[in-house]
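Reading group handout, session on sequence-to-structure problems. Before we discuss, look at one worked example. The prompt was deliberately terse, the way you'd type it at a terminal:

> structure VWFA domain-containing protein

The input record follows.
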Amino acid sequence: MRTSAPPTVCSGRSTAALLTTLLPLTVSLLVWASQSQAQESRADVATNTSSSSASRAMSVLQNASDGIDATQPGSKPVIYVNNPQLLREMQEQSLLHHTFRLSAGGVPSKEEDGILEGGIPLLERSATLGSQLRHLANNELGVTHMQATFDELPYSNLERKEEETVKEMVQSLERKFSLYSRLLTEMCETLEEQFTLDEPRLGREAQEYRPCCLIPDNYLEYKSHFGTRVNEELWCDTGFGSGDHLLPDDFFVAPYNLTEMFALNLRRYPTIKWQYFMSTNGLHTEYPAHRPGTSLGSDCGQSSRHRHVYEGTLRPRGRNIVLLYDLGEALTPRLLLTAKAIGHQVVSTLTLQDNIAVVGVAGNVARPAAACMRSAMTPATHDVKQTARHFMDFLEIQNEPTNHTLGLMTALNIISQSANSSALLVYVSRGVVSSQHQVHTIMTSLASKLDTIKTRVIISTFGLGLLKHEFSLEEQFLAALTKQDFKMFDIEYSKTPETGKFVGLDSTLNVSPFIHNMYDVVEEPPLPKEGALRDLVISDPYWDDDSSETVVSMSKIVRTEEGRLLGMIGIDLPLANLLEDVTHFTSPAHSYAFVMDAQGNVLGHPKLGRPESWTLPLVPTDVMLLEQTPGLSSIRGEFFSTHSGHTFLHGRAHNGDQLDKLHYWWHQSESNGWVMVVAWHDSGLPRRRLSRSVRPLPPTALFHRLDLLSPSEARVCRHFNQMATLDGSTLFLSVGSYVSPLSQLASGVESLGAVQSITAYLSDNTQLIANPGLRLGVRTDATALYQISDFWKKQHEDSDLSKYIVRRYAAASSGVAIMYPGTLLDRSFDPRSQSWYLSALSNPGRVVVSPPYLDPGGAGYIITASHTVYQGESAAMHSPADPVAAVLAADFTVGYFYKILLDLEPACGGDDIFDQERKVRCFLVNSEGYLVAHPSLLDPTRSSGPSVNIPPHITHQEPVLSMELLGRVEGWLTKASCGRWWHGASERHYSLQVPANQVVTLPATSNQVLSWSEINLNLLIVITNAHHSSAYHEDSIE
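And the output record:
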């Protein structure tokens, strides 16, 4: 029954009016009373009928009016009312002073401590939850069993070898550079041998040009190494469209034996991605064949791939470019599309050494929205180039004539603000002018402005809809701009005119060849220095859109013996391959490694994850932002000024309790200036690893390649959508377990022979079998982890919780993992990059519970509980500061954690748990605000469940409560936001930390917040009643 709002309370208010006001509240509160009473008598709350609830409501109302104390034994349980308005009203009525025990919120009294509205002892429930999860970790994950195993194993001390380690990392990188430099030299020699001045391979027939865009679909197959569909038996060409028009007279094609070398190189070195030859006339031959992405408005054969590599190889010093667009009314939609294609091609040629500005002009000037690009040239990072493309894509024709003078003056003002020696102004225009007088006026203003600029300015123009040899006023105007021909108009000019390049275009089909050599007017490709005919050029890491991966290009210029430039030969390699020794570095002690480029931007760091897992381009990030050690700024310069060295700083200890020493060892690459660093937290603990005397893996151990086993070796079944076995756990070695991780990944799945070599080595007790390329420590880690296999199998057969557990697994820092039921896993899986592993490392010694996520194995939405295991100690005494040896984990169904909640507090259940208006809602939330258990996660009628990529969050499901918490000055719920404005997207990260050992009241709606803490916290119990008041407890789950 819903009543109207009561009038203002006054001293003469009748008892009947007050009872009418309290009726809705009393009915709500008595639900708590009935449920609590039912719990004490162990009767099912659901069996209570609505009529009996109404009878109890009327009974309590009668008791209240008669002055009966409902708090005495045998009466109703204690009820706390925390609505401030109702509290004031009840305190004014003396007849209620002895009917309810009231709490004004804030810190509870000693006798009230831990009692929640409805008589729910939240502290007791929280302690019970902690005990249950501790029991779950010990008995289902096997933490105590595994810890006892590690405590019994022998260990040996480690010598400090950081200086040697970082030197070996750089040497490994230099060997790779040397290897690929040798391959490039061999290909250069092949090209030079095929080209002679007497019989040049020129004028190639049109049918010999193989457009990539015309490859049939059935010729292509997806390869994960390339991230797209390719054909490893073919190569293809781009640069001259789809082959429907004539090729240039000086067309030079890559010889057949060069493309054969491409295929041979890939077979010998499977980590190579793309191999290509780019000629001076614009041909781009690439292997393996695939369909590259094309720029907006470009023909399918007009790919802009590797244009920046070509320019960076021929002209490594970089350029300064202002791209000016004419958007006047003379433009047509077709010509605007051509203009945009020109811009995209120009942007594709830019490297990190280049600077770019983009401007549009009609009656007024249009600039990009990004502040850094509005009035100056900006370094051409990936983000800047994306912003420039975005700006060009949304250019529109204006219904007004073009003010050429305004556009040119704006572009020259941008150039004048830079201190560069030269700049190229590219004017993409229809060139429409009204008269010769207007041309004279424009040229006069141009000459006057150029005279005041110290920078050498070259102007190149693209005449849209104009043909070069057809005379017109438009062509005359743009040609005069290009030549800076002030004499034609009798205009005084004190400098020597700089001649640019005029190109007339009326179609997008011919854009690419003209862009290819447009920078010759600024700088001719320099002649090689004596003795450096084939210097290796290593590009900065960049994002390859076709393979969706960060790569590094290595290239060399191809010239004849006479010095004639033929083009450039290049190889692309994944950044992950070059940095694998750094990004896959592991240590039993608190050590880690990272790498920087010569400018101090981080290329690889544990906080960034491994490059092979990146899904977005790397944003240039200075080392100071990731290594936030006090005093690092004072030694930052030493990393780059000295070839190698060692230093230390006093930083926060690994356990966060005291200061310790943070040591840095570094070594610099001579080839490209990259600096590799190994850092070590000296916390005073011994540095140890498992002894080599640990007995080997049992011969009966199963490798994860179940598809290679015979029926007599294992009985294989289907576990959801994965091949599995219940005969035992399976051993899995991630690519990080190998000395060359990316080579293993590129080579595909393990062959039968490789599996036999691995298992033979791991189970060899003679130590005579050769190591098949595994890292130090893999063998002992595999032996140690596998000892829990029998325990898991027994628990699977005997435990009552097996019906809620999808799988159990464990992983070590060496990349070794085991899983039960034994499961066939994808080669690219790396347990060390998973959130359950990283979260456990961040919370050593505690049960860490993940939010729900979609199981890749087909079990639907699951929740993972994980826990660390420490290196062994003879006394079996451990602390969070101890080195972690492994992480144990298990996947549970989503419903299991809600079952835990209902078992803890039956008031959280009932037939109406999905009703938003129900009296009580309960849920579990972790310290990042992600929901672990919530009624909405189990509601089959919800149209939007948890996202595959975004776990359910408290801000989505409990917005009122979240707003209250965010508004607290104490910072109980804090939010950090970061945005990618060029993508129009943003990310929000929350941290939920409520006070410990106290009850506090949120003033806005009198929400109760109750928490209990022992060390650090991971999980909170939240109980929300119908009045939007919430109580929650941050549970210490050790």
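Points for discussion. First: Residues 162-194 form the longest helix (33 residues). Second: Confidence is low (pLDDT under 50) at residues 1-113, 197-207, 1005-1016, 1026-1038.
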